[in-house]
Amino acid sequence: MAYLELDRVSKAFGPHMAVEDFSLSVRQGEFISFLGPSGCGKTTTLQMIAGFIDPTKGGIRLEGQNLAAVHPSRRGLGIVFQSYALFPHMTAAENVSFGLEMRGVAKAERIERVSAALAMVGLTGYEDRYPKRMSGGQQQRVALARALVIRPSVLLLDEPLSNLDAKRREEMQIELRQIQRTVGTTTILVTHDQTEAMSLSDRIVVMSKGRIEQIGTPEDIYERPATAFVAQFLGKTNEFAAIVHGPETPARIVAGGWQATAPAGLSGPVTVSVRPERIGFSDEGLAARIVSRSFQGDHWLFSCDTECGNAFVIRLNDGGPQPQETEAVRLTWRPDDMSVRARGGVA
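RESULT FIELD:
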């Protein structure tokens, strides 16, 4: 039995369907990210789990219990909002202690648990500091400690790192994952940041226009995108127009001067998706010309023109010579490094 289960959940606001037919089974201790652009329904789904919004149809169960019958305050969920929502008139310790007080936890136990929660997020010594005297990263840690101190059945995170600068966000991603693994709390994160979702998650739910596009591990979704939307949204990708030639067996897929055995069940025009870092320069393959190149420190980024479409190529900076702008090159990649779909469909 799933620990948390969403069964064909939908939410309509008048004629607008914000979430449609959303189904997901979450294992206890799993870290799940809802990933997608603004307006895709990810926050609405999180709010239905929290109880802030009622589903139009479908069911949500936690350990087999129907959450529709449980008041939001009694669901035992920990929530961290994008704004952190700290009480400005309370110290860090008082903010963290608030949920325990509401649950009637004895003072001695409250003090012990608050101290442990602040230590877990690296804020020992900040107990008496008010939010206005704390950085954004420190406020985020207080909000996380407040959510975890109640020992929630599920931790819900609504874009909790979006207010941090890039360097601090990267640091907090590492710390958040370490804390989650230590505590073992089932966690659901809402984010539009692809890197954040991939670095934190056991599985990612990619959403678009209220529907699930794909569910899988970060590696599966990145390496084997199920739809054009997933391929384009999750990191950079190249899309080449190609043709599957038959009827010989096995059929061949051809993109300019590049060709390989075609996946079963495909014929005619197809689209080949290949990540930029999986493409190499070779003596054979798809003819291209370097339009521009950019030095990125640990790698080079090339933009190329080909007869099958524009292409980006990422090559590690190994200290060796790199192609120059306007230079003619050939592009190649392994068949295992591409995904193929029929034009206008998915394969």
